[in-house]
Backbone:
């Protein structure tokens, strides 16, 4: 992912953001569609071993979705810790 956003809700609230606008720092993003996750999420990463339970959990709890695709509609500066605002 390019951005990791902490949300107050459990689960994957971002899958409800399709068609909405998000401000992150001074950048504005148009949320396109939820990201469909595949077997790549189960492969080993650095010190983490291969784990097929990851994809099973994503399928069971969010219909294969985790994250969203977005288009930058207003370029800006994004820094760690910047405010994130769901506009509409």
Residues:
């Amino acid at each position: 992912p390019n951005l990791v956003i902490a949300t107050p809700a459990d689960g994957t609230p971002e899958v409800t953001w399709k068609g909405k606008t998000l401000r992150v720092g001074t950048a504005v993003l148009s949320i396109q569609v939820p990201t469909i996750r595949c077997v790549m999420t189960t492969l080993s990463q650095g010190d983490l071993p291969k784990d097929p339970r990851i994809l099973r959990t994503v399928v069971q709890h969010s219909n294969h979705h985790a994250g969203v695709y977005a288009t930058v509609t207003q370029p800006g500066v994004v820094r760690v810790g910047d405010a994130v605002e769901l506009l509409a």
Notes: The longest helix spans residues 53-62. Strands lie at 21-24, 27-36, 65-74, 84-86.
